[in-house]
Write a sequence for this structure.
C-alpha cells in the first residue's frame, strides 16, 4: 500500500511540474512566482539545470510572458528592467545564452540611463566570453562597456578581463607566478 501511495505521489508531482512548465505568466505576481520557482529548481539541480528541459521550457515561457507584458506596459520601467535583468540571469543559468544576451541588450538599448544598463552590458560581454567562447564579441562588448560606463563598479573587472582574454592558461600562470615572485622579494 505504501509503495502505491509513493508512486501516486511521484506521478502527481511530475504532472504538476509539467503543467506549470507550460504556463506563460502574464502578471508581475506570476513573474515573481515563476522566477522563484525556477530559482528553487536551480538550487536543487545546480550543474544539471542546463540539461533540464522542463526548467528551460519554464524559462522560455517566462520570456514570452515578459515580452507580452513589456508590449502592454512599456512605461513600467522599474518592473520591466527588474524582470529583464532577472530573467536574463535565469536564462543564462539554464543555458539559454542567446536569450540572456538579448534580454540584457534590451535594457541597455531601451533604458540606457537606468542603473542596471551597465550591469546588463557587462553581463553580455561576460556571457560571450565565458559561456559562448566568443572572444571577439566579448572584447567588443567589454570595450563598449568601458567607453559608456568608465566609472561603473565593474570597470576594473572589465579591464582585467580584457587584458587576459587572448592569453592562454599557460601565459596566465606564468604571469601570476612572476607577479608572486616580485611580491615575495
Amino acid at each position: 500500500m505504501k509503495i502505491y501511495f509513493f508512486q501516486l505521489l511521484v506521478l502527481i508531482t511530475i504532472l504538476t511540474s509539467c503543467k506549470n512548465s507550460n504556463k506563460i505568466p502574464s502578471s508581475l505576481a506570476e513573474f515573481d512566482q515563476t522566477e522563484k520557482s525556477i530559482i528553487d529548481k536551480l538550487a536543487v539541480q545546480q550543474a544539471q539545470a542546463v540539461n533540464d528541459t522542463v526548467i528551460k521550457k519554464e524559462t522560455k515561457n517566462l520570456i514570452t510572458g515578459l515580452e507580452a507584458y513589456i508590449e502592454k506596459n512599456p512605461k513600467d520601467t522599474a518592473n520591466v528592467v527588474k524582470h529583464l535583468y532577472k530573467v536574463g540571469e535565469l536564462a543564462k543559468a539554464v543555458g539559454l545564452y542567446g536569450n540572456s544576451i538579448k534580454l540584457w541588450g534590451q535594457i541597455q538599448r531601451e533604458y540606457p540611463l537606468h542603473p542596471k544598463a551597465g550591469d546588463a552590458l557587462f553581463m553580455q560581454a561576460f556571457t560571450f566570453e565565458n559561456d559562448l567562447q566568443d572572444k571577439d564579441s566579448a572584447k567588443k562588448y567589454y570595450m563598449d562597456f568601458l567607453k559608456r560606463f568608465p566609472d561603473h563598479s565593474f570597470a576594473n573587472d572589465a579591464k582585467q578581463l580584457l587584458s587576459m582574454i587572448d592569453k592562454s592558461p599557460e601565459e596566465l600562470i606564468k604571469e601570476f607566478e612572476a607577479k608572486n615572485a616580485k611580491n615575495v622579494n
About this structure: The chain has two domains: 26-110, 115-185. The longest helix spans residues 2-21. Residues 66 and 85 are 11 Å apart (CA to CA). The chain has a mean pLDDT of 86.
